[in-house]
Amino acid sequence: WATRIGGACGFTRTGFAYLADDRDAEAVRANVAMLRAHGMPDELLTPDELGELEPAVSTEAISVVSYEERSGYADPTATTISLQQAARRSGARFERSRVSALLEESARVVGVRTEDGARRADFVVLATGAWTPRLAETAALQLPIRAARIQVMLYERPYDLPTHLTMTDVANDIYLRPTADRCTLLGRHAPDREWLAGPDTM
């Protein structure tokens, strides 16, 4: 990161495991094969092999595991700042202004309308997270994106579990990673999630 981008991204190497049941097993095997064909050191593990690697994990619902020993997680704030600084070094200019609509001419987006007036551009990147559908609609674009309330929890780990893998468990619909303060950050995308009219209603 420091060589290609510059700065620091706060990367913490933990190893990463993607846990799947029978419904997603074929897709996981195909993905690992594709990554290995491109030189990535991904491995396929059995539930028992995962249990040996991470004894604290329940593998009852798991059929197959994709494992990346060198993976981990980055600090989102440090990563964003590094990318911003790298863009500035390459000539990018940053302006802070609220965007209310996309500007469209001849079925093409040519800029944005802001609280300070119109800004025209050859290219417009719409990267506004949960607010993306609302802005897309101003240019007659309908995107299949909906806002939802999700559950994110922080648990203190027992002292006999100093750390663990970063994991996505699609069989049990959870994802988790360790934190530096002896906690585990856990999120859940429940099938019965609460859909919202928009992000401002949260």
Entry keywords:
202 residues, alpha+beta, 3-stranded antiparallel β-sheet, 21% helix, 31% strand
Topology:
Elements: E1 12-13, E2 16-20, H1 22-37, E3 43-45, H2 47-53, E4 64-68, E5 72-73, H3 76-89, E6 99-105, E7 108-114, E8 117-120, H4 132-137, E9 147-149, E10 151-156, E11 166-169, E12 174-178, E13 183-188, E14 194-196
Parallel strand pairs: 2-11
Antiparallel strand pairs: 1-5, 2-4, 3-4, 6-7, 7-8, 9-14, 10-13, 11-12, 12-13
Mean pLDDT: 93
Relative helix content = 10-25%
Radius of gyration: 21 Å
Number of helices: 4
* Uncertain segments: none
Question: H/E element string?
Answer: EEHEHEEHEEEHEEEEEE
| Widest beta sheet: strand line-up | 3-4-2-11-12-13-10
| Strand percentage | 25-35%
Question: What's this entry about, in short?
Answer:
This protein has helices at 22-37, 47-53, 76-89, 132-137; strands spanning 12-13, 16-20, 43-45, 64-68, 72-73, 99-105, 108-114, 117-120, 147-149, 151-156, 166-169, 174-178, 183-188, 194-196. By secondary structure, the chain is α+β, with helices and mostly antiparallel strands.
Please characterize this protein's 3D structure.
This protein has helices at residues 22-37, 47-53, 76-89, 132-137, and strands at 12-13, 16-20, 43-45, 64-68, 72-73, 99-105, 108-114, 117-120, 147-149, 151-156, 166-169, 174-178, 183-188, 194-196. The protein is α+β, with helices and mostly antiparallel strands and 202 residues long. The protein contains four helices and 14 strands. It is globular. The mean pLDDT is 93.
